[in-house]
Design a protein that fits this description.
By secondary structure, the protein is α+β, with helices and mostly antiparallel strands. The protein has 4 helices and 6 strands; from the N terminus they run E-H-E-E-H-E-H-E-E-H. Strands 1-6-5-4-2-3 form a 6-stranded mixed beta sheet, sandwiched between helices. A hairpin with a 4-residue loop joins strand 5 and strand 6. 30% of the residues are buried. The structure holds tetrahydrodeoxyuridine. Tetrahydrodeoxyuridine binds next to helix 2.
């Protein structure tokens, strides 16, 4: 039997002011994107903002549906929009923001499994990592180095080649 450790270092910024100006701006764009959220069922607005290698910022927000599974998370709305509008342009960081009106969230919300799988495809396609910034309210920011780190042993196109 062999063992292989798979893990990553999560960077936590208790004080968001420690982040670079660009990262703070991207988180602000994700926060602003929550205004487009359609979340009458969960009442959990989420905003996402993606910076592309060319400098464009593409946003997304969660879009729910009376048939619950037909809705889509903010991250996929953003990354699919980026793929459709700027095909093949590498994605730099992705910021995800959730409000925290009642102060009940003690850590940022992390992308769901389906979003990780969708995002992994883009990481594979651009042959480079997509850094992720996560924040709830004005709280600490979590920084993850890549989607692969969040989805070790994910299913990628290599399985189909
Ligand atoms: N949601 C996102 O948009 N992104 C996440 O990272 C987690 C969950 C949405 C899906 C649904 O509209 C609501 O949040 C509650 O699950």
């Amino acid at each position: 039997m062999q063992k292989k450790h798979i893990g990553f270092d999560l960077n936590i910024y208790p004080d968001p002011a420690e982040l670079s100006g660009d990262d703070r701006a991207l988180l602000a764009a994700a926060r602003e994107a929550t205004s487009g959220s359609y979340s009458p069922y969960s009442k959990f607005p989420v905003g996402a903002a993606i910076e592309l290698a060319t400098g464009e910022v593409v946003i997304g927000s969660n879009q729910e549906n009376a048939s619950y599974p037909s809705g889509l998370c903010a991250e996929r709305v953003a990354v699919f929009q980026a793929g459709a509008r700027f095909p093949g342009t590498p994605v730099r960081p992705l910021a995800v923001y959730v409000g925290n009106p009642g102060g009940s969230l003690h850590k940022p919300a992390a992308p769901c499994g389906n979003c990780r799988q969708s995002l992994l495809e883009y990481e594979h396609r651009q042959e480079g990592p997509i850094r992720i910034l996560l924040q709830a309210g004005g709280g600490a920011v979590y920084e993850c180095p890549s989607i692969r780190a969040l989805l070790p042993l994910g299913f990628d196109p290599e399985f189909l080649s």
